[in-house]
Amino acid sequence: MARASESWSSSFGFVLAAAGSAVGLGNLWGFAYRASQGGGGAFVLLYVVIVLVVCLPVLVAEMVLGRSTSHAPLIAPITAGGRRWAPLGLLFLVAALGILAFYAVLMGWTGRTLLHALLVGLPADMAASEAFFGLISSGGGAVLGLLVSLALTGVVVAAGVRGGIERLSRWGMPALFVLLLGLLIWAAFLPGAGAGYHQFLLRWDAAKLLEPTTIRNAFTQAFFSIGTGIGAILAYAAYLNRRSGLPAEALSVVGMDTAVGLMAGCVTFPLVASFGLGDVVSGSTVGTLFIALPTGLASIGLAGRLVAVLFFGLAYIAAITSSVSLLEVPVSSLVDGLGWRRREAVWTCVALVAVLGLPPALSTGALEVMDALFGGVLLILGGLLIALLLSWQAPARFLSDLQGCGTPPALRSALLFSLRWISVPAIAVGLSVSVLDLAKMWFG
Ligand code: TRP
Questions:
Q1: Where do the structural domains in the chain lie, given as residue ranges?
Q2: What pLDDT, on the 0 to 100 scale, is given for residue 244?
Q3: What are φ and ψ of residue 408, in 5° steps?
Q4: For position 278, what pLDDT does the model report?
């Protein structure tokens, strides 16, 4: 097996790329959409607890799996746990391809909305907005958006880890942060902003917390937003040197991701409240933000158009720094496992995902199903298996890798303990609830 001779320029480069992977459409679109479904502040609290207590140790474990083996997602589980862990590598590949397929469709919608706001303008009313959304989310328009987004992702990944992915994150992440901060300040001065924050963070519908759908959404959102469970961060960590302190790096990734999710909520909720779009959003479907935001912004003229350009531009930057991590999973696996050249691997995978992306491009129903299966069930299952592999099957590898990068003994044992006794049981519960909830939803 030929390990590609790629690496990050520094551990800061790795952290930026990992944060770029975490911060994406999930934060800007999924978080607001799920929080409005799941009881506002109660959902946000549940989400933050899952992220810190359940996902953070899994993220560290996934990083250790990549760095300690120096292998791609397809191979790393075998190196760490032996042949019988081979199916986990396959799960990583299948899930990454499946997520990228619908993610690139969402990117396509984002890009089209951006171009329209930039070149044409915003839809005059709800009906016009729905018509425009229909146009970009079905038929040839959606396929075009998918193909362009995949091609851009392919170009970055083909340029390599340092020359492509790291370089993109180095300017993309700061740009995104500045744009978001600007929008946050602008939104704070909207009439009715207070009602928006209230709706997002302070509304406390505790009854929702016991609903299986809320629990499924919170687990899905946590794993999806951090981006742990399918080997993307594993692939990135395989290009890392031995000394960088993984727990602190994982914590900064999680911190940035959560901050961006909360900031995005503090932009979208005031907007929705200010323009009286609450009803549209709580009957939430995947298309809501793409319909509600442009309509609301249109009502304030040129300033609204500018904000739309900034918001969807920022969303597109966030999306592409994420999609590259998804593509890196199969690409690095072909390079590492089968000795392919990076370029060949990239364009083969892009072609494959273009085909897989046709159903979600042509039907939003198919998109929701793929989101729930690949971005939900398989992702959470992957997280569970990573936790099991490093805490029960190969704890010595986990501890010695952390020791090697100078993690204090108490922190090492605390992480191992929480992987074993908190993450594993909690994810098992979250996964069971999710599967049952989906089964009930789909099969009655
Ligand atoms: N985290 C990204 C988002 O919030 C999407 C993403 C990138 C992802 N890499 C991932 C999701 C790996 C699951 C697994 O939009």
A1: 11-443
A2: 86
A3: -60, 150
A4: 67
